[in-house]
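Researcher: Structure prediction, please.
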Amino acid sequence: MNTPPSQSGAEHTDGSSVRLGALVPLTRPGWVEAGRHLLAGLDLAVREVNDAGGIDGRPLELVVRDTAADPERAAAAVDELAGLGVAAVAGEYHSVVARAAAARADALGVPFLCSSAVLDALTEEPSEWVARLAPAQSHGWRIYADFLLGAGRRRIAVATQPSVYWASGTRVLRDHLAPQGGTVVELDTNAFTPEALCDALVDHGATALLLLVGHPEPAVPIVRAVRGDRRLAEILIGAPAGQAEFAEWAAVLGEDGAGIPFLRYLPERLGPLGERVGKELRERLGEAPSFVAFEGWDTVTVLADVLRSHGTDRAAIAESWPRVAVEGTRGPIRFSRTPGISIWQWAWTPIQVVDRDPAEPDRFRILHAG
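Model: Predicted structure follows.
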């Protein structure tokens, strides 16, 4: 049953706080480390909003729900959060999960600001209720394809698992590489052991292997097998989805996890705001913050600005997306209608292709910027 779009999120609260729902993967099979960074950014921004007086004197309250990378669980969480009177829903890392949350938010008339998911078709039909900070997959992965071409890698193999997200990424790569003489062969990891995958890479003469698979399984065993195969000493292993971003990757794989390029949504140098927030996030996390933590902070900062300017009425929040003009940690944030994208989109956050330096795996090298 659809909630009337004009219904105010504030009507369900006791008036003491302004509630924001937060969708975050905090347990397996969700990408737990990404969830931890996302939540750290969301939490820090809420604390800063409240330290500055909240929303017209009312504290901002984050109501967190663990999606565990489960689309059905995420959709149910949106239902629950709507009933709890949240003004808007924020967050989520996994694209397929965010898509389920976006569909439910759109149906209920609840504003949803997606922090990290990149799937182009986040909603089946154009939605006025959904906006996004992360770049669309087609934009970021084309930049990654340009990096591959620039590195002289045209015979690309992708190790895949069944998923709308991985299939969409493969299509972006193939469409962008083919006109420039690149080829993409798909290797279904459900049909290959890591060792058999190595044989297939040799047979295809692949010059790059992209890991379009989950972490740690099966990504880690595949990396170990390829690194240990002398026939594949010259192959480039890549992970556009960013598996190598997090400390857990380096801890599990050590030197084998270095030299694996991935997409990161940060500028070459952070400005003063980004530097300050980054320092706070490092203290909270006990490690260097990933771009996902910055996405969390930016999400709440945008929503707080909207709530101060337009109030807690859900329809008013959704109507405000085209008028957003907020200084984020990675640049000025504005939303627009982008061709081929069904939601309000920040076009675009800065994008880099980076890897962990083989000589110093805790240090990142910028290989390409788009």
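Model: The chain has a mean pLDDT of 95.
Researcher: Thanks, that helps.
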